[in-house]
Amino acid sequence: MAVSLQVIYPISEGTTFDYSYYTTKHFDLVGEHMGEHIETMFVTKGLAGGPDTPPGIYAVATLVFENQDALNASMAAAPPVLADIANFTNVQPQMLIGEVIS
């Protein structure tokens, strides 16, 4: 059963997010430390929260794994990736781990 990890970066007053750093240096770290365990990865940049509504989220990173064991191995390799978050945002990211059903 495939599982996913979504990392959600919500927008709130006083927060910042450096997309340039995120899409270059941080992505490189993800690939270096976690990449061998990831089947698919994509990132969605928040543009709007609905018609005429600003986005409530900077970005959502979605990582898909073959199974729970692959996710666990990836998370075991993640400390350098997690430590890098402070280099591109002051947001406390939210995480959602789930079963891919479609």
TrEMBL record:
Organism expressing this protein natively: Parasedimentitalea huanghaiensis
Record-linked InterPro entries: Dimeric_a/b-barrel, EthD_dom
Protein name in the entry: EthD family reductase
Lineage: Bacteria, Pseudomonadati, Pseudomonadota, Alphaproteobacteria, Rhodobacterales
EthD domain location: 19-89
MF annotations from Gene Ontology: oxidoreductase activity
